[in-house]
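User: Fold this; tokens only.

Assistant: Input:
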Amino acid sequence: MEKTQEITLKDYLYNKNFYVDDNILNVLYSYIVTTPRVGGVLLRGPPGVGKTTLVELIAGWLNANLIYFQATPGTSEDDLLYRFIPSEKTRSGVEITLGPVPRALQLSKRQKVVLLIDEFDKTRPSADALLLDVLQNYRVSLYIGGKKNIVKGNPENLYIFLTSNDVREFSEPLLRRLLVVYMSPLRPNDVYRILIARGVDEATANLLAVIYVDTLNANLRKAATVQELFQCYQLLRNGVDLETALRIAVIKYDDDWQKFKAYLQNRRVEEVIRNVVVSSTNDTRTGNALLKHYDFDEKKIEEEKTEEKKNEKEKIDEKKIIEKYALLKVRSTKKEAEPQTIESSATEEIEVALKIANRDFTAYTHIVKSFIDEVGDDPSRIGKFELVRLDVKPDESFIIAREPLSIEELMRLEDMPIEAYYETTLLLSWNDVKKLVEKASKIKYATKRMLALETKDACEEKMLLEIDRDIAKVKGFIKCDKTFHKVNARLLYEAIERSSLDKKLDIILARQEPLPPETFVPFRFCFNDVELAKQIDELAKRWNWRLDVRRAEEGYGRGICVRILPQEQKIICSVIYNYHHDVDLSSCEKALLSIMKR
């Protein structure tokens, strides 16, 4: 392997007593030396195989600044973008600074940086979208101090690594931007060689290699790591008995310990030692019940072979019994919704607003779950959705809708392959319109009052906007052959998600008449901001709308969650406390509650 440092990466890892497969090493080396570098590396594998340690060592080899972030269940995009620090200098008591992603981008302008997001699979699925622009263009947009900032990094200095224990799947656009490397547990012989290289005597290295195999097979939370086995060796060398050393260094949970002991009582010796060199050297360790399970001799192995042959004969007899048992069939139930049949000819087109293939009732199940309150007496109709089949294709069924979908209905169809037509009314400033134009890959019509935009990425989209000052009537088509998610729909996502609530409020307050009832105003999070409460109060008084202030003790947001419902002439403000962050929202909550008393 070519040298780019004073020592090769392979030698550096070897000197640190870290072993990695040559194929994996070649992939990582290729990513590190390739310029311009686009994307990152996703290290997958069970806990304890060394994913995090490997990235830390790579940072050391590169002499790079390591920015480490540990994801926890429910970690959101905000956790990656912002860092919240208690401060007496701010009115809210919290200072908002750069989180791990923008901080890594900023530092990369002047030095090498390794960004490691550990256990990224614990984040919310929506966090995938945040990394798309980072991995593709090395930039990120965020709001600090009420202003939009774009932080750009230097791709030649930034190395991005994610680790995953496969808690959840990742979106297709994210995976396309990553090199996915699976790290398997080390082979027992490799563990043996590493321990010998670290100065462990042959007899103890053999014993620890066998213990390693047992931890792999005993269905514990994770297998023993080389570092844990080496710590176990140090304890044994200092006179600690084997059972105590294992409890201290290797198997640290009580339930895992019980599993391990039960496994030792029943596991077959021959299977354990098949790939491990077992020394016959006698050692002087004494004093615990576990040692007998690691005392392997030829007689015991021969006894197990005899027992295995006996068990094999019993399995054959058992198979015959199972075959006869299979003839008994338990009565079951079967009730399926019958699709309506649509009469058609081979050349006639039937225009609908939604089409989803209903393979094995997956689409029907999703529709029922999403619109359960609209289920009626006809199983083939759920609200505006219908289960149908064409007379020319009687073996296939579809979910269709004949009326245009609303934005709210469309959002409930996420995680499905869809082809849909929707209509909505949106609150859009001219700046919002310009951003939509930037996102479009094709523009087929343009006047001050009408735009026809198209784009094709993860989803194919067509959007027609009829613009009347700050209100836009939107007619849209969207087709996703894989799965639909709003972050994959570039035009739709820009239209309903991108602009911040304070800008929306400015537009609403500048109007001389109320919003049209059908206007869709997206749900928004805001930080602790008393001025926001005053704006909401002014809006409610101007149009004589009802203000509903709530308090939510649990949730993943922080600050105020605002939902404006023009059709109901109502504003819902929920003050949410996030258990991940110590954010003082008391002043904002008091401001909102004081409005209720007016």
